[in-house]
Amino acid sequence: MARRFGGKFSPDAPSDDAPAPHPFDRRARSRVGFRVNFLFLLPVPFLFSAFGSDPLGLALNLACFGALILAAWLTRDGIRAEDAYHARRVAKRPAIPRKIFGSVLTGLGLGLAGLADGSLINAGVFFILGAVLHSLSFGTDPLKDKGMAGADQVQTGRVDRAVREAEKHLADMAEAIARSGDRTLEARVDRFSDTVRTMFRTVEEDPRDLAAARKFLSVYLQGARDATVKFSDLYARNRDAQARADFAALLDDLDANYAAKTQTLLLDNRTDLDVEIEVLRDRLNREF
Predict the structure, then answer these.
(1) Residues 182 and 58 occupy one common structural domain
(2) Which domain range does residue 240 map to?
(3) Which residues, 6 or more positions from 37, have their beta carbon under 8 angstroms from its beta carbon?
(4) What is the pLDDT along the chain (288 residues), one digit of tens a residue?
(5) Are residues 282 and 160 in the same domain?
(6) How many CB atoms lie within 10 A of CB 201?
(7) Total structural domains in the chain?
(8) What is the pTM of this model?
(9) Cys-Cys with 99: which of 78, 113, 129, 262 at CB 3.0–4.6 Å?
């Protein structure tokens, strides 16, 4: 009797046999690239020229080097903060306008370089050009809150603080798992972080969900961070295969539970919407 074989790549493969998620799904490319990193190289010539100058030139060139390095660091940090701001549907503006400070410091550094050449006019021109060109190249920081118009400011502030603390736990997890040297587990922790951030976005859209999700954003996530730290320290020492298998299973459980809780929050939000629609319809029917 003939026997039919099938599998993952067969035309009639079951629909639930879905491919694994791509590691770059739901990820935006970081804008911290060559342009930003090149800012750290630009001040180097002033460091070398400082030691071939008189004492005043030495001081001015070193001050120029320090201002430009600080400007580069603030610019890079400001772009990262802006990326995080745009990634969230509800967000407060950055507390420190890093890119604006970076523009001012760039102009100040170049102005000091002009002053080191003994020209006050050059110093003024370089200051203006440096600040303006930096601002045109990298833009300014977000200067207003996003998605908070008409919202309960107290509740929204609580959500913002909870999400910030949860992001710190995720960053600690990523830093800890990197010490293990296991690229597969690093990618697995990244996927779990994406699942958790989906919950963040859900809570940000409806701050009333914070009470239901609070343990997931604090207690459980802190426990996941502590487990990751302990596993990484152990695995880096003895490469315990059983510990690795247990940790991978823990990540699977965490991912499944966070995804399920997020779906519950979404269903609750849909129920609330249905109730609001029905109430509005009843009111309209009574009016007409």
Answers:
(1) no
(2) 153-287
(3) 76
(4) 444 444 444 444 444 444 445 555 555 566 667 788 888 998 998 888 888 778 888 898 899 999 999 999 999 999 988 887 887 776 778 888 999 999 999 999 999 988 887 788 889 999 999 999 999 999 888 888 776 655 556 777 788 888 889 999 999 999 999 988 888 999 999 999 999 988 888 888 777 778 888 888 888 999 999 999 999 988 888 888 898 999 999 999 999 999 988 888 877 656 555 556 665 666 656 665
(5) yes
(6) 14
(7) 2
(8) 0.60
(9) 78
